[in-house]
Amino acid sequence: MQVVYTPIHLAHDIDTETFMGVGVPANEVTERAERIRGALLADGGFTLTAPTEHGEAPVTAVHDPGLVRFLEVAWSETRAQNIPRAFLSADTYPNRSMFEGMSAEAVARLVREPRQIGGRAGFWGLDSAAPLVAGTYVAARGAVDVALTAVDLVLGGAGVGAAYGLCRPPGHHAARSMYGGYCFFNNAAIAAQAIVDATGERVAILDVDYHHGNGSQQIFWRRGDVRYVSIHADPDRQYPYFLGRADETGEGEGAGENLNIPLRAGVTDDEYLAAVDRACDALAAVPGSVVVVSLGFDTYGLDPIGDFALTTAVYHEVGRRVAGLGRRLVILQEGGYHRPSLGENARAWLRGAEGREFDPLPSGGFGAGGSVVA
Ligand SMILES: [Zn+2]
Q1: Range of the domain at 224
Q2: How far apart are CA 67 and CA 136, in angstroms?
Q3: What dihedral do alpha carbons 87, 91, 94, 95 form, nearest 10°?
């Protein structure tokens, strides 16, 4: 399988994030992508491919151009406004209750982007969980190019059944006009839109990250041509808290096209596979030849921010079952924060999708010492 990778992601170099207002060591770090790259190279069955530049048009096909402009200048503006800090993160957001009692027309007129950079970050941001640094914009655009190059490989007519885009930063929390949750541009949504545009077919997105992909859901909420199916932690206990429940099914032409499968804490491999089967039924019902997979490994039992109990073996089986749909697959990396296991979990999933056997490294072999890291 071809793996689209670019070292441009290294520019988004984060060492601190905030959790409930307190600075903590960052989870979404450069090492994540390097671990995965190292494990796939060590496997010998994967080929690394550099992305090609696709320009801004596919980004603004999904995102508000104002969000793109903000992210492009956010760091230089932070510097220009003499704000002495290592990363930009907002602390004031336009909470819905700020406008309670006002008409929709008044809200549309009154809620506008302020001039101060912290206010602008609050205007475009969902939360303080997406620290922005000097290289964030270029890395986020690089991740989009990774996703679109994976699309090109799969649509290219060379009989490629699946391609994996090692996207970093991830994307599925980014909505049309909003970044957040470590995500800046929604790589999977941009890929799905590009597939719709290129093929005229309906497209399905399968999101198996631990978190609900609120951005992907929002972007396609009223769309009949892109079905969004997500298996994730119940938002009653987990980020993004305000979306991801089972009764969110879409509206208008998108009515019935959104399927959320929220799961309890401690979910086991067998319970998870039952959810995967349910999701696959919903994907198989979509006419079309391509499925976009938002692939996260924060479902892993040892993940520091998740609470599922999945093992490496189940990823191989999930990959196998998703490939069993018989669709072409554009597989894009989202989350996953237990760094020592990331490479092995990705390798297992992708081998399953390719129909290769589960071939775990000898026990303990995924390298507390980081031996697979290039
Ligand atoms: Zn996640």
Answers
A1: 2-54+136-354
A2: 13
A3: 130
Distance 154 CA to ligand 1 centre (A): 25
Q: What are the tens digits of pLDDT across the range 284-313?
A: 999 999 999 999 999 999 999 999 999 999
The answer to the question of residue 99 being in a domain is no
**81 C-alpha to center of ligand 1: Å?**
33
Whether 360 is in a domain gets the answer: no
Backbone angles phi, psi at 145, to 5 degrees: -65, -35
Spacing, Cα 240 to ligand 1 middle (Å): 10
131 within 8 A of 19, measured Cβ to Cβ: no
Residue 42 included in any domain: yes
Domain count, the chain: 1
Write down the catalytic residue from 54, 173, 212, 338. Answer: 173
Q: Is 12 a catalytic residue?
A: no
How buried is residue 64: exposed, middle or buried, by Cβ count under 10 Å (0-12/13-18/19+)?
middle
Q: Is residue 259 part of a domain?
A: yes
pLDDT tens-digit series, residues 19-66: 888 889 999 999 999 999 999 999 999 999 999 999 999 999 999 999
Q: How far is the CA of 115 from the centre of ligand 1 (A)?
A: 31
Question: In which band, very low, low, confident or very high, does the pLDDT at 362 lie, cut at 50, 70 and 90?
Answer: low
Q: For residue 100, how far is its CA from the centre of ligand 1 (angstroms)?
A: 31
Q: How far is CA 346 from CA 5, 35, 36, 37, 246, in A?
A: 14, 10, 7, 9, 28
In CATH, what number is assigned to the domain containing residue 315?
3.40.800.20
